[in-house]
Amino acid sequence: MTSPVSPWVRRFVPAPDAPARLVCFPHAGGSATYYLPVARGLAPSVDVLAIQYPGRQDRRHEPNIDDIERLADLVVAELAPWCDRPVGLFGHSMGALVAYEVARRLDTAPSVLFASGRRAPSRHRDTDVHRLDDDRLRAELARLSGTGAGLLDDEDMLAMILPATRADYRAVESYRYRPGPPLTCPVLAMVGDADTEATVDEVADWRAHTSGEFELRVFDGGHFYLTDHAGTVLGMVADRLPAAVR
């Protein structure tokens, strides 16, 4: 197919002959480039797309969107041209919530949902990270180890990163699960055993959000356990996408 032009979708390593696609959703403050290694690692067996939210990198001049369901509405519209073959969804942290709400809206159920580092949609915590001042928000990002120290020490870069990050946290913290039919696709939930943002019990509750198969995998590490277990996670994704396609 001819690649549709969209500010929302990044296709770093096109794999037009792959039997399935994987759409990846970034964490709060993250960007599509976080998934460049995923695209490289899975091509040519999987055609990987990464979602670029407004307010960051080449979309930094666009207004941030601080509502998960609004993000999902807009992403679904952009994904329509890409649903000519089975599509899996992968989201880390905030991205898992966006992926879940996208899955609820797709006309055809995704092949599989990979929910990483995020408690189940029905498990809410009252937090106010988006209300922190800039210094404390920077400290929070440093604590989670998801943003490079060099970026956090660069005042110019920080001025570009923080508004989008704050909007993302506002989106997550204002999200409330709306009861409805469970997904029908398999769900693989993943979490680090030392993750302060999502405990194993909170992540295990993803099983209530699908009538399909459910699997929980726990890794050594914190919120960004992916950094140390990238190869294992990619292998799991690759294994489950072909199985879902068949």
Automatic annotation (TrEMBL):
Assigned keywords, A-Z: Hydrolase
InterPro entries noted in UniProt: AB_hydrolase_fold (IPR029058), TEII (IPR012223), TesA-like (IPR020802), Thioesterase (IPR001031)
Thioesterase TesA-like domain: residues covered: 23-241
SMART domains: PKS_TE
Signal peptide bounds: none
Short name of any one Pfam family annotated for the protein: Thioesterase
Family: Belongs to the thioesterase family.
Annotated protein name in UniProt: Thioesterase
Species for this entry: Actinophytocola gossypii
